[in-house]
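Study the following:
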Amino acid sequence: MNDTELLRRCHTIFPGHRARRPAELFAAMAAWCEENGVDHDVYGQGALLQEFEAKVARLLGMEAAVFCISGTMAQVTALRLACQDRARDLVALHPTSHIFVHERSNYQLLGHFKALQAGDRYRPWQAADLAAIPDRLGAVGIELPLREIGGQLSPWEELEAIKAHCRERGAHLHMDGARLWEAAAGYGKPVDEIAAGFDSVYVSLYKGIGGLGGAMLAGRREFVERAAEWFRREGGNVIHRSPYVVAAAMQFDARLAAMPDYFRRTRFLYQALAAHPIIRVNPAAPQANMLHLHIPVPPERALAIRRALAEEHGIWMFNRIASGALPGTSSFELYVGDNLLAAPDDRVHAALALFARALAQG
């Protein structure tokens, strides 16, 4: 039995939202399209797409937003245009930025801009990290929350100071908001208040929202229109965006409304984990509905434990696993979504106890 089949048999699943098989998802999309009289867009022109772009722009407090087939394309395009506008090709990024960690040096190989690592990789940015850079920056990119360090957020006062610093130095401030909807619950503030002071914002349509894929880039109308033209030049001009937009739009409001519940469930999980010190949690207190769990076994042993728990108890603890910084350790990311929200408290406590016991025998 492969992992997909094994996961499907589990009744207690810790990470994310319930995965719908294609037939179920497509049927739900078809029903929603029928109810709402949806037609395909054609190369980005269509009522559903334009209305959804305008909705996202309003939520973010921006003039305009445009669909992009991927966040990778959206982010480097936005930063390149920002640098061109200021005739400065240097961008400051956190050492754990998605652009450094996951985008295969695209900005460098394609000549988009030059990137500078700023700050400490194990904590969010402080305004002092940017103030220490003597160079004239074209742009600054900040991820909210920082995925690679467990979903940490810059303290609100520091974020406001970062906004002021970029404004004073004339640097374009861009947000990697792939998990901005989650950050809103962590900050306890609406997304437009968080986005205020940013020149551009990218948001994902599939991570917390659960769509098929795709992204939105928001900002000033003129900037967004230029970015849209570059998306076409870069191969992002797919004939129909409608499948991606429908998959996101049909559950968008419900997912945003559930973010505070996910955050409360994350707080419950932190309290439950306190009973099992063999499992180390980053950050020390929840800042969004995600966290990283560090365990004292290598990835191979962790995967064996996961399989045993799934086969014997119907428990699925994590998806991907990575080697830890110390020998013989590993870590995994846990996004708290519908699965943990639906799991009874006693079942969560029992699953954690079984997992901790297996780790102790590792």
